[in-house]
Design brief:
Structural class: alpha/beta
Helix content: 40-55%
Largest sheet: 5 strands, parallel
Number of strands: 20
Strand order of the largest sheet: 9-10-11-13-15
CATH superfamily of one domain: Trimethylamine methyltransferase-like
CATH architecture of one domain: Alpha-Beta Barrel
Shape: globular
CATH topology of one domain: TIM Barrel
Distance between the termini: 53 Å
Radius of gyration: 23 Å
Strand content: 5-15%
Number of helices: 17
Low-confidence stretches: none
Length: 487
């Protein structure tokens, strides 16, 4: 019997075709600005029309079609011990924390503050202990290191203390080399890294229709070494893109296709995720709400366009704009996670995040891990498990008056029913009172501390750990740091 996977769709095939055609027209008629002279020259050599006066590149439909033809329909990620963790194909879903927050929610004060390297290491230990979150991200920026090494040191801490693969990125051209060399050190050589990727780099066009010098260089560098990328187009409906969802999708498609064209011209077949972080623009508060239902609809819809192109997808979804751990936090996160899961978004970024991705909460990560677990159970669907013929089960039920210890129950209980952590309280009221009437935030903090304190670092060659520490220290010394914080 074929398993029926629950799915959600927002766009008809006809509408996807129309959006795609409009995006192709934009790339051919309006072009896209690329502020990287070397990359413009390279693209010109591949036959795209380049206007040197405006820094614009015009991609023909045939170039886009050629790029899509060479684009891989799937790829995998592997942890530091070369164990497969993520299979980005079909409707497989995976969860990862959001990225690059500037603040952390302090449990003791319930206020935001600037995070440190010690906070980052605690985060690594926690996220590597959460079994429903498949990969790490370089989730927030430690304030106690020079800005010039904030990218590389986060990747370093992630692989020094953690084992899961990492979603990361560069805010400068200079960061890439040491980040690439850290990965090569973990894998042993470039060939192994290409065959068993350890990271995904976020590369972000600038809306509307631009690629900056830095991000286009990151894209070029990642393509050269076959390091997977995720394209993060960020149109803002009603501000930096048309106010309608369809208009925003046209722009998102054009910006993402331009990245795919660049990427595949440089290295045909290099892996990527068709992703983004678009949002509506809230004119009342001048903010970009990631928890708005329209933002989630845009995410799920462009995921359908990505699947139309037969490529794996990503979205910043399953996060909240709440300022603290409250009803809004859970509502927005769970709603996004469910919609993204039913849409089959292959990699959902956002766990642990508050306030437009500006703030991370370790306690929220714990709760979000259970949200992720419920979503993974949701998409596994409903299927018979020795349920037919049903007569013997009901004969046993009527004879024994219960099925708690039946062979069928013991065999399928854990497969059929997801059991969340103790943070999700399913006790009755009197038992909850007897246990101290603890609130979810308090329970989540206790769980986070327990997981951090019992975490065991990954075991792999000590020579590798010394090598990546030496690489990071050389980089740190360039900016007058003689030691690495918290090591």
């Amino acid at each position: 019997m074929t398993l029926l996977r629950p799915k959600l769709k927002f766009l008809s095939d006809e509408l996807i075709t129309q959006i795609t055609e409009e995006a192709l027209t934009l790339l051919e008629k309006l072009g896209i600005e690329i502020h990287n002279p070397a990359l413009r020259d390279l693209i010109n050599d591949f036959g795209a029309r380049v206007d040197l006066n405006s820094s614009k590149v015009f991609f023909s439909k045939s170039i886009i079609e050629r790029a899509l033809k060479s684009s891989p329909s799937n790829f995998k990620l592997y942890d530091v011990n070369v164990k497969e963790t993520n299979n980005f194909s079909d409707f497989n879903i995976h969860f990862t924390p959001g990225s690059a927050a500037l603040n952390i929610l302090d449990y003791k004060t319930n206020n935001q503050r600037k995070p440190t390297s010690k906070d980052y290491i605690k985060y690594v230990k926690l996220v590597n202990s959460l079994n429903n979150i498949a990969s790490q991200s370089t989730a927030f920026v430690p304030s106690d290191v020079p800005q010039e090494i904030s990218d590389s040191i986060r990747l370093f801490y992630s692989v020094f203390y953690g084992h899961k693969p990492v979603v990361t990125g560069c805010f400068s051209k200079e960061s890439f080399d040491v980040m690439k060399n850290i990965q090569i050190a973990v894998r042993g050589n470039e060939k192994n890294l290409k065959e068993k990727p350890l990271t995904i780099f976020s590369v972000c066009p600038t809306s509307p229709l631009k690629w900056s010098d830095v991000t286009s260089q990151n894209l070029l560098d990642c393509a050269k070494y076959s390091i997977p990328v995720e394209f993060i187009s960020m149109p803002l409906s009603g501000f930096m893109s048309p106010v309608t969802i369809v208009g925003t999708l046209v722009q998102h498609t054009a910006e993402t296709l331009s990245g795919i064209a660049i990427h595949q011209l440089i290295n045909p077949g290099a892996p990527f995720l068709y992703g983004g972080s678009p949002a509506i623009f809230d004119v009342r508060n001048e903010t970009t709400p990631m928890g708005a239902v329209e933002t989630m609809m845009i995410d799920c819809a462009y995921n359908e366009i990505g699947k139309h192109f037969n490529v794996p997808t990503q979205a910043y979804i399953s996060l909240s704009d709440a300022k603290e751990f409250d009803y809004q936090s859970g509502m927005e996160t769970a709603m996004g996670a469910v919609l993204g899961s039913l849409s089959g978004i292959n990699n959902m970024s956002g766990a642990g995040m508050h306030e437009f991705e500006n703030c991370i909460s370790l306690e929220k990560l714990v709760i979000d891990n259970d949200i992720c677990g419920m979503c993974l159970r949701l998409v596994s669907g409903i299927e018979p498990k020795e349920d037919f013929p049903s007569l013997p089960h009901f004969e046993e039920l009527l004879t024994e008056s219960q099925l708690l210890i039946s062979n069928h129950t013991r065999k399928y209980l854990k497969k059929e029913i997801y059991s969340p952590s103790n943070v999700i309280n399913r006790a009755n009221y009197s038992r909850w009172k007897d246990d101290g009437s603890k609130q979810v935030y308090e329970l989540a903090h206790e769980e986070a501390e327990k997981l951090i304190n019992t975490y065991e670092q990954p075991v792999y060659d000590s020579g590798i750990k010394k090598e990546i520490e030496a690489l990071m220290l050389v980089e740190a010394k360039k900016y007058n740091m003689n030691s690495l914080p918290a090591i």
